[in-house]
Design goal:
The chain is of the alpha/beta class. The protein has two domains: 2-180 and 226-253 and 298-304, NAD(P)-binding Rossmann-like Domain (Rossmann fold); 196-219 and 256-296 and 311-325, UDP-galactose 4-epimerase, domain 1, CATH 3.90.25. 41% of the residues lie in helices and 18% in strands. It has twelve helices and 14 strands. Strand 2 (25-26) and strand 3 form a beta hairpin. The chain is globular, with a radius of gyration of 19 Å. 47% of the residues are buried.
Length: 327
Amino acid sequence: MKVLIIGAAGMVGRKLTARLARDGRLAGQTIDHAHLVDIVAPQPLENAPFPVALEAFDIAAPYVAPKLTAARPDVIFLLASVVSGEAEADFDKGYAINVGGTHALFEAIRREQALAGGAYRPRLIFTSSIAVYGAPFPAKIGDEFIAAPLTSYGTQKAISELLLADYSRRGFFDGIGLRLPTICVRPGAPNKAASGFFSGIIREPLAGKEAILPVGDEVRHWHASPRAAVEFLLRAAELDLSLLGARRSLNLPGVSVTVGEQIEALSAIAGAKTASLIRREPDETIARIVAGWPRDFDPVRAKSLGFHADANFSAIINAYIEDELKT
């Protein structure tokens, strides 16, 4: 099996590739080759039991998609995107990458299928977002709730979901879209995502650093750990996608908590002194963006298909401590 991961240098991409290197298999098949791509070259994999190619590409560049699909990978993970805050701040860049790059990849796969006389039909796993939904929301968003985003990022993801469904319907590839919860706690340096503070108010205090909280304690949001995100991707690679029918994108399980409940969990695990490192500094732009995001879900469909998330937010914090802070 040949695997292509676009966005392999990102946090979820790094964790996914490390897991594949450890397992040596995906969806019950031995991995023969992995092609890891991002805007910057991904880090080499240690002790991978299969050959690995590492390359830096801008997926918005017109020559890139045909180059990536020429080897006809069996499974493609499309993780790369311009994140929420950056997509809102830079309209052109968001559409060029999140829509243009995605469509170019889909078209390149279609061309490869034509060259193969119809014999090539890869599995394509696309990381979408709960940002495809916009307020007003019900108490819990069900699988039938309409996607009506209120941000450029959410709109770009929704457009890509429609493309994914149509290209899958036409048989050009076998696609699934995963509407990821906000992934928390993200290790490493903060990124430009508007949701970054959800991780920052946990990660920075645990490192003994001050964290800025730009929204009120009452803000409620939907989270999953990096561990859960990797499991989502692995499940999507092995799932019989005929079970999805025409609706190719799934709301995934997560944990719904308020910012205040996040802080309470941090205090219970690491102490009040650690939690006191959070400094409240309101940011109207961030608050406006976050106010347009969903808060809670009832992901019946994904659960019935074998997708599972964290038990509670304390489990998310403990997973971060175990995976990132313990040596």
